[in-house]
Amino acid sequence: MNKLIISAVLIMLWVYPVFAEENVYSWKDKKGVSHFSNQLPPDDIEKYDTVKSKLDYTTTNEPTEESRPEYDTMVENAEYKIKQNELEVKQQETERSVKEEQQADENRKAQKEAKRKELRDKIDALNKRPLSRSFNKAFRQGQINIIQKQIDELNKSK
What we know:
By secondary structure, the protein is mainly alpha-helical. The chain contains three helices and three strands, in the order αβββαα.
């Protein structure tokens, strides 16, 4: 009886791979990178493609004449997806670079405007300050001229 059970188990193990099918999953992650796996994608991936392939353990891994067109199509699709992914990554990098440059320009403009306002406030404070022996019109005008030169330099700079 034991020999019969062992023989049946061995035959099942020998025949099982012939009927086995394996799924290949492909998906893109949040960064746009394409992935291919025989395991399901992570739970946060909503959209993925599934390709069922029947495993043939009786031959080598080389594609046969019957499977060659399917293999070639799969390779072409994978190459196309890789190229498409590379283009998308380059486009995203370009867009990110442009956004970073725009943000840097906006920051520079905001800094220049803040400095310009600070200098104008200094001029207003000098104009409001009452004149005295140590702070006469000529001294005030000299201070205002120095600050005005700084404002002019800010306006000339990029």
